[in-house]
Amino acid sequence: MWSNFFVQQDEDGRMGVAGGGGLGVAGGVKGVRGGPRRQKMSDSLEGKIKLAFFLSIVGVTMAVLGVGTEFWAELAQPKYLMNNQTCQVAHYGLWKGCVKTLPLDQIDLERPTCGPTELRGETNCTYFKFFTSGENAVIFKKTTNSLNLAAAILALLSLAMMAMGSICIVMSLSKGVQFFLKPASFCFALSGVLVLISVLVFHHSVLGLLDSNDSVPVTYELSWSVGCVGSAGGILMVGGLFFLLLSVPCSPWERCLPQQGSST
């Protein structure tokens, strides 16, 4: 007499066939799994990812602050160039430039040039037109060049990579998987490199601006926006390195647990 067979489902979701009857034979044949099970990240790994993401967000905030402000470079004329009771100092960034008129009685007597820009005075600010009409800006009879536009494009690309990296980390945390850590690492590291290159290109644009006209003596110095952007670039590259280490299954940041073999 044939044994009665029945299909049972084990705890792992695998389908098998087991039989029993007068012969006293009991066995099971394991079927095919429906698909590989996705392994969730541990709580400790998730905490480390959030910590690295916080570090990266600090870099993103500093980069946005630096790129959006117009204190990349300060240009100062000699104090007594205009032969009156005022002098002019300018500061500009990637998108906008300002010329400030300062009274001489506010300036330090030992300072040979006008400034600093933190002093109170009449300010006239204009946005650069090389993004729309392609017209170069003129500051103290000196003309900007295409390197300023190149620095702005690099800064925009850097911000785009920061946004993509942030999206990858949010998806990694919401899905609980490490798959998005490597793309996030690439995006944040590349954004840091791009923003540092933008600072270098901008510095060369300032030198080109000063060489465009020698009739007006002007001195320059890089301002706090450049320091903010440069620091952001370093922080973003460190954050990208952290995400790369966290993406490795057996990295020093996360202890690898032995995988349980399937029972036979």
Automatic annotation (TrEMBL):
Stretches that traverse the bilayer: 51-73, 149-174, 186-210, 222-246
Membrane topology type: Multi-pass membrane protein
Xref: Gene3D superfamilies: 1.20.140.150
Places the protein is found: Membrane
Superkingdom, taxonomy of origin: Eukaryota
Subcellular location, principal: membrane
Statement: the UniProt record of this protein carries the keyword Flavoprotein: no
Name used for this protein in its record: Calcium channel, voltage-dependent, gamma subunit 6b
Organism ancestry: Eukaryota, Metazoa, Chordata, Craniata, Vertebrata
